[in-house]
Amino acid sequence: MTDLIWLAVALPLLGAILNGAIAVARPTWKSAVSFIGVGTLVAAFAVAVMVALEAARGDGAATTVHLWRWMPVTERLNIDLALVVDRLSVVMLLVITGVGSLIHLFSVGYMRADAGYARYFAYLNLFVAFMLVLVLGASLPVSFIGWEGVGLCSYLLIGFWFDDKANADAGKKAFLANRIGDFGVLIAMFMLWWHVGTLDFGAIAERAPALLPLGGTVVTAITLFLFLGCTGKSAQIPLFVWLPDAMAGPTPVSALIHAATMVTAGVFLVVRMGVLFTMSPVTQLVVTLTGALTAFLAATIALRQYDIKKVLAYSTVSQLGYMFIGVGTGAYTAGIFHLVTHAFFKALLFLGAGSVIHAMHHAQHAAHSELDGQDMRNMGGLRRAMPWTFLLMGLATLAIAGVPPFAGFFSKDEILAAAFARGEVSPVYLASWALGLAAALMTAFYMARLMAMTFMGRFRGGDAMQPHLHDAPWIMTGPLVVLGILSVTGGGLNLPAFAGGSHFLEHWLEPVLRPVTALAMPLAHPHGMTEFLLLGGAIAAAVIGLAAGIRLTLARPVALPADQPPERGLARLLAAKYHIDEIYDFLVVRPLMWFSTRVLWKGIDQFIVDRIAVGGIARVTQGLGWLGSRLQNGQVAFYVAMFAVGAVIILRTLAR
User: Which end of the chain has fewer CB atoms at under 10 Å, N or C?
Assistant: First the structure.
């Protein structure tokens, strides 16, 4: 079955081609679009399951499937279009196709009334195809096809409703921010080829320890450039600003791109290139500290957001920070573990938010209301009208808050324990553990605040809307139920010994991470009393945050947007997102606009090219033409005089 891994990519790609053709020729064939869009991805998931079963029966060795010769440049540079099947790519394959299938199914109900239905599914299928190329690529150039492809598809999906300028601008912002990171990946590829002589993942892991000095300048530069790419794709400081604006796209897009797939590409790349990152302690510190600062910063911003999708967007940025704390400390299994559990509960939260927005939009249309259907201040009391959504989002909230025995508790605890254990190497790791614990407390608080403002108290949207509020149809609620089960049970994937588990995921990934383990400093996880104190601290942070979030939110009536007094002090700063976008606009965007307008356009293009080069040549030609016209005046005496002058000049020249 491994030899047929190409089907996992080909099926969603076929769906994109067929739905793209329908979007052009017959955009009203929505039933056909639904069958193709969902069916191709379910079939890809079936392929993934069969490949996973085959991988489970094997010894964990990687299998490379060569499709065709791609770049036969020289004997040294000979790149095949090849896919690699190992236990890491299998995990990603199952998450992408499994969660992706549920999101596609949800989209059938959510986007059914949209005029661009076929175009939407074409983009969605194409995105999944590129994401699978990214995680299955056997070399950096092949993975880079997927890396760039998901960037293109995110631009198309975020700006899906491009008639609204804000949506189009959000798509461009995501595209440009990711291009900055992609530049880093390209530089890293050039350096790897120059110093290691290969771009194949397996060959890099074999050759790099022998060719590059441990902790040397070269390996540090390569990994820092790779990490620049990761900060773009996975929305870390300083390139995280695109992800909150990406909420302009349809909500299922947020669930697919910004919860389960694209934003985890950076984490996946660090694990895939784990040998190189392990060889650079400086880069590991940078990765860990960047993740910790991002987790903390994004969590503080989420405390004062009112758009339900913006809260979840900053939550995603924060949770991605946790994953980088994990991989930065060398706890690669913990990072992948949190990637998987996060895909479950964050996809559920986004799709649950989509159900709420769908219900609010339906009620607004029926009541002719103009309220903002995504502002939580216009909601409240929805648990009575939407009991299934309330229950399932409640489960996801407990999971992301880190309440045992839900999935998020085990993966987050492993990451924090790894950061604490690395504290003996550098105080930076201890600081990262402290920031991570503080972010966990705030995560529980803002998620409890979201649940309280959305589902508790009284409905604030008006009596005219209330009778029209209800749970989404089962084609939308069904995927939420599956994700709810996974959010509850997902922790069993790598259940620790103290909970009676056997660290299944750790053993599963052991063949992939064996070269990394041979180079890495052993990670001594806390045991005994220290372990239970760390567990107690994590549980206390979750419980205190949830209790405080609900209590403080419901302590006084939530004001409608029009009635709310202006924010003051720190709350105003958090609501304004620390003015980071404005700072970037002042320091980066405006200078670039000035340079491109004043220097490149007006200075070089208009003055040098247009006026001097093009216009100057035209004026010289015009002047010569005018001079020639003066010589042709019709006076014979003038012609004879000119002839005589010319003859004299020629004779004098010959006489010399």
Answer: C
Between CA 187 and CA 189 the distance in angstroms is: 5
Highest mean pLDDT among 104-118, 281-295, 423-437: 281-295
- Name the DSSP class of 614: I
Measured distance CA(483)–CA(200) in Å, rounded:
35
The pLDDT value recorded for residue 602 is 78
* H/E run at residue 78: strand 78-85
- Name 68's bridge partners: 81
DSSP state of 598: I
Does the pLDDT value for residue 23 go beyond 80?
Answer: yes
Which structure tokens are listed for 415?
A: 């990451």
Where does 372-503 have alpha helices with state H?
Answer: 382-385, 387-401, 407-421, 427-455, 474-489
- Where does residue 369 fall: left (phi above 0), alpha (psi -120 to 50 degrees), or beta otherwise? beta
Report the percentage of the chain scoring pLDDT > 90: 59
Distances (CA, A) of 237 to 103, 118, 288, 430, 583: 28, 36, 12, 19, 14
What residues are paired with 71 via a beta bridge?
79
Measured CA to CA in angstroms, residue 200 lies from 8, 51, 63, 305 at distances of 21, 22, 13, 44
From 518, 324, 334, select the one nearest 415 (Cα to Cα).
334
Res. 656: pLDDT tops 70: no
| Secondary structure class of 45 (helix, strand, coil) | helix
Token look-up 């990519």 returns 9
Q: What is the pLDDT of residues 43-73, one digit of tens each?
A: 999 999 999 999 998 888 888 898 888 888 7
Helix, strand, coil in percent for the chain, rounding step 5: 75, 5, 20
Whether omega for the bond prior to residue 405 falls within 30 degrees of 0, making it cis, is yes
pLDDT on residue 621: 87
User: Distance between alpha carbon 632 and the CA centroid of its chain, in Å?
Assistant: 72
Interhelix angle 387-401/332-367, rounded to 10 degrees, is: 150
Q: 403-446 pLDDT, tens per residue?
A: 998 989 999 999 999 999 888 888 999 999 999 999 999 999 99
Q: How many helices (H) and strands (E) does the chain have?
A: 27, 2
Say how far apart CA 234 and CA 174 lie, in whole Å.
11
- Both tokens of 53, joined, read 């079963």
For the segment 611-632, the average pLDDT, to the nearest whole number, is 82
Contact 222, 275 (CB under 8 A): no
505 closest CA partner among 347, 333, 621? 333
- φ, ψ of residue 198 in degrees (nearest 5): -155, 155
Of 241, 380, 303, residue with least CA distance to 574: 303
Mean pLDDT of 327-339: 94
CB 157 within 8 A of CB 249: yes
- Residue 605 near residue 266, CB atoms below 8 Å: no
- 131 contacts 150 by C-beta, under 8 angstroms: yes
Q: What are phi and psi of 376, to 5 degrees?
A: -65, -20
Does 527 have pLDDT greater than 80?
no
Tokens describing residue 60:
């964990």
pLDDT in the model for residue 395 = 96
C-alpha to C-alpha distance for 15 and 250, rounded to whole angstroms: 20
- pLDDT greater than 90 at residue 354: yes
